[in-house]
User: What shape does this take?
Amino acid sequence: MCCGTKRLTVIQCPSDCVYLASAREHPPAAVVRRQEQDVDRLVQFLHDLNTRQSQLFFLIGSFVARYKSPELHPLIDDDVAEAAAALAATFETAARGLIYDHRPASLPADRLATGIKALLAEAAGNGGSAFDRDAGVVLRRVERAAREVRKSEPANRSAFLDLLGRMIRTPEESPSDRTAAPERSRLIVP
Assistant: This one.
């Protein structure tokens, strides 16, 4: 019991300690449960999407996960849902042959929508109305996901953003970047 509660905080364990090695290999049960919940949610949101739509979902998700908002206008789940809804409406009207740019009401959502729109314009290439339909479907799915995750955790205004941050690793995150961060406690409590 003493080893499990005071490991690496009070007791300086030798590097060849089998209990320390086991603790490093097996994350706490709460972390495993959270990862399983996150994967279940992500699979639920990807249900019924084709390959191109799934790729667009991850493209948008990775953009949102690494998006840096200005200090005075922090991004929250409601902004993500609002930006996705406005862009979905824009792409849905474009798929019908009409050009109308729907705009979100809040400034942070508008800035995010502008970034996502530029990203999708680059990804579209010569996709035409088929790409517009796929983008509309995916953006509606992102909107729904942001609203559902936010509703499931009412106290956390950035629950969807946190989910994306945990599930989508950006290319600039290398293993050395993660080890350079302050080391978390490796304490395992039974």
